[in-house]
Every structure is written in structure tokens, then in C-alpha cells.
Amino acid sequence: MMEEDQELERKISGLKTSMAEGERKTALEMVQPAGTDRYCVKFVLHKEDHILGNSLRYMIKKNPEVEFCGYTTTHPSGNKINLRIQTRGALPAVKPFQRVLNELMNVCQHVLDKFEASIKNYKNQKASRNEPTF
Amino acid sequence: MAAAQAVEEMRSRVVLGEFGVRNVHTTDFPGNYSGYDDAWDQERFEKNFRVDVVHMDENSLEFDMVGIDAAIANAFRRILLAEVPTMAVEKVLVYNNTSIVQDEILAHRLGLIPILADPRLFEYRNQGDEEGTEIDTLQFRLQVRCTRNPHAAKDSSDPNELYMNHKVYTRHMTWIPLGNQADLFPEGTIRPVHDDILIAQLRPGQEIDLLMHCVKGIGKDHAKFSPVATASYRLLPDITLLEPVEGEAAEELSRCFSPGVIEVQEVQGKKVARVANPRLDTFSREIFRNEKLKKAVRLARVRDHYI
């Protein structure tokens, strides 16, 4: 468990600093509620809020192997979220979490590409109609 | 057929009823609907997703995002407001302030002035670093003294004539390059965005002399660092007429919505209402105050089309 945790933490912090702008040292903890096995896990993400919480929850729920996923903020002025994942028993709960982080990056990259193409398109259209662009 | 339509409506539309809103939450997760494959598929997402810029000028941008879910669209909106960095005045060193505006109020106002500087070219200031280096700080100087105008008419009461420099604008701020900033940024590229923001007002004998340090920050820390005045979205309205509306009722119907939404056409001598451009509607729900017409219309929003 400890090795997986550390490896996961390394991966997560690697992904995070490439995703976020500036330096935000993100800490991630994995908590196993008592009496369960590794199919039901709670992650505590520090320095995060609904931005990541809701998007991760949506993407994780899109996975048919996931039985339950939810997130809460511990306190509105606090800076961390609890994300709980429970799978049907085929995958350990960390697997959908890892997959979703990559998927979310792909989604954002795709949105960025489409957005930039659309802006360029709009500017070209305006230029071809001889309107002032900025 | 009706059941399939109802399911489709539940999946893709947020319906605005008379007394409440239905189908608000996204329900298209795997296992909820039989016969639909709702697992995440990057290819299907890329095929359905598109972005169309509707309007763009120096101060505002309006675009459509189609095929994305509320969770991610809202995440983008929140990130725009709170986590995109900008440069703003953080520290103000006051050498002389004999104006009527208190030091801290003046410093607060200066912090809110938008600065034209690309934050990607700067670093965040290290914690505990009081001085600031050329890579993370911009320096501005503001030095204004108000004097009496010796050439003013004897009995004039217009402050613009009587006093010189009595209004302190952002154009009075001068940029002091640090280190190699003078080489990196040509003259005039680092300045407040607008040069006609009124900072303070003075009278003869009063002076403001201060030095400002700008640093990079994010909106989460202080709202002055937020790059947008506001960022918002709305869902595309979807208005369907459940039964044909003709004659006088058609005119009434078109008055219940924003102008341009409902068009009344002459068909075979009768006036018939048609939904022309639902995008313009602001959903005032005036239609529900009309007893006859409220059953004829279904107000809804398209769940994955964000404007």
C-alpha cells in the first residue's frame, strides 16, 4: 500500500505541476476506511476545491466499473476535498483515479486546441471582411 | 416512441416548468439507461465537441461550447475567475501623501488598477522575499503635486481652470524598469491598461509621491489578481410549441418572449407563430402568466450547449 501510495503521489504531483500554472505544491493522501479492502478508497486532495472535485467526479462516474464516486469540501473556507471512489470489485480503486487524471488532461488539451482554432478562424474571418482585428 | 422521446428529453434537456426546474442534474452515466453506452469515450467526445466564437473585441469574448458537460464547463469558468494569474500592485511605498485620501485607501485603489503586462513572462515572488527581483516585480512611480494656476480668471470657480494637476489619473504612473527589464520590454509596453482611471483628487499644496511594486498573483488570493471582470455562461434555450398557435394568440405569444424569439407569419391568410431564434430569449417566463398559452409551450435548455 505504501509503495503504491508513494508512486501515485509522485504521478499526481507530476501531473499537477504540468496542469496548473505557477507553483502550487499539491499534497495527496490516500485513506483506507477501516474494514474495507482496496476497492473502496478515500483520497484527500489538499489545496483543491470544486474546480477539480466536480470535474473528477464526473469523469470517474463515466467509468462503468465505478460503483460510487463522490466528493465533499470539508469546510467552505478550508482548502481540501475528500474524494471517495468505490469500484465493483474488478479494479482497485486507484486505477480509475489514475486513468481519469490522464483523461481530464486529454479533454482539456482538446478543448484548448479547438478553442484556439476557433479564435484563429474568427480572426481570419474578420480580416477577410476587412474589419479591424486587435 | 413516446417513451424513447421522454428518455431523450430527460437526457438532453433541462426543462423549465411553471413552478420548478426539472432534469437539472446530468444523468448520463453508465448503468442509468439501458440501451445507451455512456462510458467515457474520448473519440466520441472529440467528435461531438465544438467551439464557435460568436463575438470578440478588446474587452469581451462570447463563444459557444457544444458537447461538454456542466462539471467541466463550470471548472473552466471558476478557473478563469480565480486561478489565471495577472500582475497587480501589491506593495506601495509611500514617501509623501498629503492628499485627503488615506494611505491605505490609496494603496487599495492602486492595487485594483489593471496592469498591462504578460504574467507568463514573470515568476511568482518567493515567500518571505521582501525586496523583489527583476524577474518577479514591476515598479511604478506616481508623483503628482497640485498647484494653483496663476493664469486663471479672477472669479472662476471651475476646478479645471483654477488648479493644475488636481486630478491624479493612471497616466501619471511611470514605469521604472528594474535590471534588464528595459531590454526585454520596449518603452510603453508596461503600463496600466487604461490611462484615464481617476486615482485621487488634490488641491493646491497637496502631493502624492509613492513607489509601487507589482507582483504576480491569482484571483483566489485577492480579487485584484482576477484577469476577468466577470466570466459567466448560460445554456442554449430551446423553445418548442406543443400545439399550433394562431391568430391573436400568436401575437400574444410573441409578446411573451424577448423580441426576435417568436416570429408571426402569414400562412394562408392566418397568422401562425413560429419559433425563430430561441437563442435570444432570456427566459422571463412571462408565458406562464398567460393562462391560455402556458400549455402550448415547452421551455427548456439544451444541456450541453454553453454560451
TrEMBL record, chain A:
Q: Which domain of life is it from?
A: Eukaryota
Keywords attached to this entry: DNA-directed RNA polymerase, Nucleus, Transcription
Alphabetized GO MF terms: DNA-directed RNA polymerase activity; protein dimerization activity
Q: Where in the cell is it found?
A: Nucleus
- List the SUPFAM superfamilies hit by this protein, alphabetically: RBP11-like subunits of RNA polymerase
Q: Which CDD domains does its entry note?
A: RNAP_I_III_AC19
| Record bears the keyword Nucleus | yes
Pfam families reported in the protein's UniProt record: RNA_pol_L_2 (PF13656)
Q: Where is the DNA-directed RNA polymerase RBP11-like dimerisation domain?
A: 40-113
Biological processes annotated in GO: transcription by RNA polymerase III; transcription elongation by RNA polymerase I
CC terms in the record's Gene Ontology section = nuclear DNA-directed RNA polymerase complex; RNA polymerase I complex; RNA polymerase III complex
Q: Which family does it belong to?
A: Belongs to the archaeal Rpo11/eukaryotic RPB11/RPC19 RNA polymerase subunit family.
- Protein name per its UniProtKB record: DNA-directed RNA polymerases I and III subunit RPAC2
Record organism = Sapajus apella
TrEMBL record, chain B:
- InterPro entries in the cross-refs: DNA-dir_RNA_pol_30-40kDasu_CS, DNA-dir_RNA_pol_insert, DNA-dir_RNA_pol_RpoA/D/Rpb3, RBP11-like, RNAP_Rpo3/Rpb3/RPAC1, RNAPI/III_AC40, RNApol_insert_sf, Rpo3/RPB3_RNA_Pol_subunit
Single GO molecular function: DNA-directed RNA polymerase activity
Q: What are its GO biological-process terms?
A: DNA-templated transcription
Q: Where is the signal peptide?
A: none
* Cell location: Nucleus
Keywords attached to this Swiss-Prot or TrEMBL record, sorted alphabetically, are: DNA-directed RNA polymerase, Nucleus, Transcription
Q: Which SUPFAM superfamilies match?
A: Insert subdomain of RNA polymerase alpha subunit, RBP11-like subunits of RNA polymerase
Highest taxon of the lineage: Eukaryota
| Single GO cellular component term | RNA polymerase I complex
Q: What is its main location?
A: nucleus
What the entry lists under Pfam families is as follows: RNA_pol_A_bac
Q: Where is the DNA-directed RNA polymerase RpoA/D/Rpb3-type domain?
A: 60-307
What family is it from?
Belongs to the archaeal Rpo3/eukaryotic RPB3 RNA polymerase subunit family.
Question: What's the name of the protein?
Answer: DNA-directed RNA polymerases I and III subunit RPAC1
State the encoding gene. Answer: POLR1C
